[in-house]
Amino acid sequence: MPQASAVRALLDQLDAELVGLAPVKGRLRDIAALLLIDQLRAEQGLQSQPPSLHMCFTGNPGTGKTTVALRMAELLRQLGCVRKGHLVAVTRDDLVGQFIGHTAPKTREVLKKAMGGVLFIDEAYYLYKPENERDYGQESIEILLQVMENHRDDLVVILAGYKDRMDGFFASNPGMASRIAHHIDFPDYGEAELMRIAQLMLARLNYRFDAGAEPAFARYLSLRRQQPHFANARSIRNALDRIRLRQATRLFAADRRLTREQLCTLQAEDVLASRVFAATPAEAH
User: Fold this and answer.
1) Which of 81, 117, 131, 202 would bridge 207 by S-S if both were Cys, CB 3.0 to 4.6 A apart?
2) With contact defined as beta carbons under 8 Å apart, do 189 and 230 qualify?
3) 3 state DSSP class of 140
4) What CA–CA distances, in Å, run from 84 to 70, 100, 115, 193, 231?
5) Strand ordering across the sheet containing 55-59
6) What tens digit of pLDDT does each residue of 58-82 get?
7) Is the dihedral of CA 227, 231, 233, 237 positive or negative?
8) Do residues 107 and 70 touch, judged by C-beta distance below 8 A?
9) Helix, strand or coil for residue 265?
């Protein structure tokens, strides 16, 4: 099964690239296995029916939903389930117009771009606004439903957002709920996983924490996770950008020739200058 080898290699790459997310990775392997076995059954002349592949990814911001959707598109291309394997990521604003006659062409243009790949709709529940009788989101939903049914052999739709809001969206739109075969929940990262994510992000940019900066950042993580608007890996990336900014200011002020080691090393003072260490629980960053 040469195709299986390529799929396993892609799944192993995903496993190496993404910290944590064991339940998510397990579901992806299950889906890949089902598709491969289904293809083998068809080759042997056994009863075979291609499964529905439309999905819902739920979880808080920064838990890897878009990244996994990108890898899913590539995986489906390897399996021959879509022609191109590209990802088109959109929100309500890309699909819904503001006046009569505007929504249908906007939605169809997005679907045209996504055909042959994966359409990823973030915060999909914003498509449905029953409290506003002049809202055109329902028109977009109806077009999506039709295309999801008629072109499911050439387009996979992934809806994403907070779990409770997506549950409400499906309760109000049973036609959409019936077309979503796979519901995958993305858990928040633990502190050890967030530290590992930070280290990987720094390594890609040729930075590292020194002996004092690493425990300082661990303290930062513990405090920041308790504050509002914490967005998992997204917040880690933003925090590292600010730490690098403070390091650059410190090195620039030194006004001397800098070594490679100095350019690559983040110190405890770069971390401890964060407002998080002096902030009240109601404050962020």
Assistant:
1) 202
2) no
3) helix
4) 12, 33, 8, 33, 31
5) 87-90, 118-122, 156-161, 55-59, 182-186
6) 999 999 999 999 989 988 988 888 8
7) negative
8) no
9) strand
